[in-house]
Fold this sequence. Notes:
By secondary structure, this protein is mainly alpha-helical. The chain has helices at residues 2-36, 39-44, 48-53, 55-99, 103-114, 127-134, 160-163, 168-171, 180-188, 192-204; strands at residues 119-123, 138-147, 151-158.
Amino acid sequence: xxxxxxxxxxxxxxxxxxxxxxxxxxxxxxxxxxxxxxxxxxxxxxxxxxxxxxxxxxxxxxxxxxxxxxxxxxxxxxxxxxxxxxxxxxxxxxxxxxxxxxxxxxxxxxxxxxxxxxxxxxxxxxxxxxxxxxxxxxxxxxxxxxxxxxxxxxxxxxxxxxxxxxxxxxxxxxxxxxxxxxxxxxxxxxxxxxxxxxxxxxxxx
Length: 205
């Protein structure tokens, strides 16, 4: 019920903004037409007297409408600039973190490829998980579950921006198909908490 009310308020807010925009747009167009149209055209439409008699009100309406529309335009460009700056900073943060991955963080990222999974359920309290999430490399997808011993878990995936910077060299994967010995080394280097979760899933199955 509360969700429906919030949705109703959201759509009402959008409707009011749309109505306000349309009203100000038409006000600006109407005032511009009355002030700058040729006298002959206004006379033919019998609006010449109205345009002359109420010119100060029409001018005020033009100023108000134009100011509102210019404010919307300015806000749009400001929002775009902020969004661009935020994306740039996030990308820089990801690039910097990729250069400074510690062995546990690198091993955690390898898990997605070793398990052939897009999404992994990981413990939220683990330092590697928190660090990679903060850097924007891991994306939190929700689906939280709470366990008495292991703490809370949630689903995570590698963000699209981070995928562009993660290759075999960064993740320390061997070139080509790994041999049995190389695969054994990769599995041995898995984060400790991954082993416990794999064991838990097997028991649950």
